[in-house]
Amino acid sequence: ASEWDYNAEGDNGPADWGKRFPKCNDTASSSRQSPINIVVDNTKYNASLPTPEFINYDVAHATSNLIISNNGHTVVVTPKYASSDSKAQIKYKGKTYELVQFHFHWGSDSKRGSEHTIDGKHFQVEVHFVHYNTDDFNNFNEAKTEEGGLLVYAQFLKSFASSANAGYQEIVPQFEKVKYKGNTTTIPHFKFDTLLSKVPDRIYSYPGSLTTPTCDESVSWIVNSQTVEISQDQMSKFLELKSNKGETNEDLVNNYRPVQKLQQRTVETNVP
Ligand code: BO1
Ligand code: ZN
Predict the structure, then answer these.
(1) Cβ atoms of 207 and 32 closer than 8 Å
(2) Angle 204-209-210 (CA atoms, 0-180°, nearest 5)?
(3) Complex ipTM above 0.90?
(4) How distant, in Å, are the alpha carbons of 43, 155, 169 from that of 223?
(5) Confidence of residue 161 (pLDDT cuts 50, 70, 90)
């Protein structure tokens, strides 16, 4: 089978991805796989590390839509822009990266779910805002195999608040329409900055990979250390999602890859 999953027991889980997707192996000392555990004491303060600049994250395009879909591995939100609309971007280290989608990794309880960990600690949800470098590449697929091609901004969520987070309330109530693999729904565009903790924050920046097959080592990772709170009711909507078409009843949960070796890499931070 060409499918892969997050099940440690079967033959398609993270430990076996490398058999069919060789880039997923993290054995070579040159490898730069993601996610990683960020050991705060081992991060390197870089006073000139730039703060990522969010462009058009504060625009709610009246004529653009978002496609929300369950692909069996996660829920993906993809902007479909009208031609006149300006796209959401991040500027970082002199390059411009365009947002192509964002998606979620989550856990069955508050002790798991995120892909990155900080000093060994997981958060319950990690949102990935996936961008490609439009200065040097024509589209996502060209960029995805190339060094410097992609930038992913990671935002942790924790379920804590009793009142709903307004930004995530634009999306989470739609989950019941995409309960099964292959389901898709459409909503109007809204301001993506409502999904992020306020900047500037302490960020961690390091070179890594896509966290799913084919694990291409093309990603500049920015991990925001500051969490955003959602309500327990919002968290419960993640836990109703299914990873299949409904014949069986597998929950779509714990869809995170275990942390990979740091190897020769340094994690930089912008706060001493
Ligand atoms: S992640 O942010 O490292 N978890 C990650 C992992 C895989 C992808 C993106 C981000 N996959 C790609 C697919 C493409 C697709 C693209 C944009 O996402 O390989 O086929 O076009 O949705
Ligand atoms: Zn991801």
Answers:
(1) yes
(2) 110
(3) yes
(4) 12, 7, 23
(5) confident
- Dihedral angle, C-alpha 209, 212, 215, 219, nearest 10 °: -20
Catalytic (active site) residue 73:
yes
Is residue 72 within 8 A of residue 150, CB to CB? The reply is no
Task: Give me 233's structure tokens.
Answer: 């009711």
For residue 2, what pLDDT band results from cuts at 50, 70 and 90? low
pLDDT over 70 percentage in the chain:
99
CA dist 154 and 196 (Å) reads 9
100 within ligand 1 shell (Cβ under 6 A): yes
CB atoms within 10 A of CB 85: 16
Angle among Cα 71, 216, 207 to the nearest 5 degrees reads 115
pLDDT band at 174 (very low <50, low <70, confident <90, very high): very high
From the CB of 131, is ligand 1 less than 6 Å away?
no
Which of 4, 1, 2 has the alpha carbon at shortest distance from 243?
A: 4
Report whether residue 174 contacts ligand 1, using a CB cutoff of 6 Å. no
**Separation of CA 216 and ligand 1 centre (Å):** 10
- The per-residue pLDDT of the chain, averaged, comes to 96
Sign of the CA dihedral with 210 first, then 259, 51, and 130 last? positive
**Mean pLDDT, range 181-204, rounded to an integer:** 93
φ/ψ region of 215 (left if φ > 0, alpha if ψ in -120 to 50, else beta) reads left
User: Does residue 51 register a pLDDT over 70?
Assistant: yes
Residue type, 264: Q
